[in-house]
Design brief:
The chain has six helices and six strands, in the order αααααββαββββ. With 170 residues, it is α+β, with helices and mostly antiparallel strands. It has one domain. The protein has a six-stranded antiparallel β-sheet with strand order 1-2-6-5-4-3. It is globular and about 35 Å long.
Length: 170
């Protein structure tokens, strides 16, 4: 089965989404929000995105944002939950035209908490069971995927779920 076949048809049209979650245990990763004393390295973030995704970002002229995630971002609560759990959230470019990729392994309690935060921010759940997709409000280019043990996210028109390396094979 191809990766795009695993993504619900209603979400395949979301060409760009920024990452929201990172994988725990990635060598050299440190999550955190700006001002928290931790930062996100470009090297660690390069492990979060597939080679094809990195080439597309470079080809689009989108530079790595070493100051991401920002506490004042409208979805900062979600990004803080990801990095606070040891996950990673990385950004290239700016605004909805950029690309954010995120991933984190989370406990079931933390996943429920993050799902509640997403719904509180206006994200709509779609699907059930082993994979629930949370689609951004107002047609914004962002989607988060909650599985039994992890959270994955992409946002921005330059981001694609199939380029989120930890999501491959899901």
């Amino acid at each position: 089965m191809t990766r795009s076949a695993r993504i619900p048809a209603a979400l395949r049209g979301l060409s760009g989404v920024a990452a929201l979650v990172a994988v725990l245990g990635t060598a050299g990763c440190s999550g955190g929000t700006s001002g928290s004393g931790t930062s996100t390295s470009e090297e660690a973030c390069s492990e979060l995105v597939t080679e094809a995704g990195l080439e597309a970002l470079e080809g689009a002229g989108l530079g790595f944002d070493a100051g991401w995630p920002r506490a004042d971002d409208e979805w900062g609560e979600v990004y803080s939950a990801i990095t606070g759990a040891g996950g990673l959230s990385c950004r290239w470019g700016e605004g909805d035209e950029g690309a954010t990729y995120s991933a984190a392994n989370l406990t079931s309690e933390r996943l429920e908490e993050v799902a509640g935060t997403l719904e509180g921010l206006g994200f709509s759940p779609a699907g059930s069971g082993d994979r629930v997709f949370y689609v951004a409000p107002d047609g914004r280019p962002a989607v988060f995927v909650v599985t039994p043990d992890a959270l994955y996210g992409v946002a921005g028109t330059a981001a694609h779920l199939e380029d989120l390396a930890p999501y491959e094979g899901r």
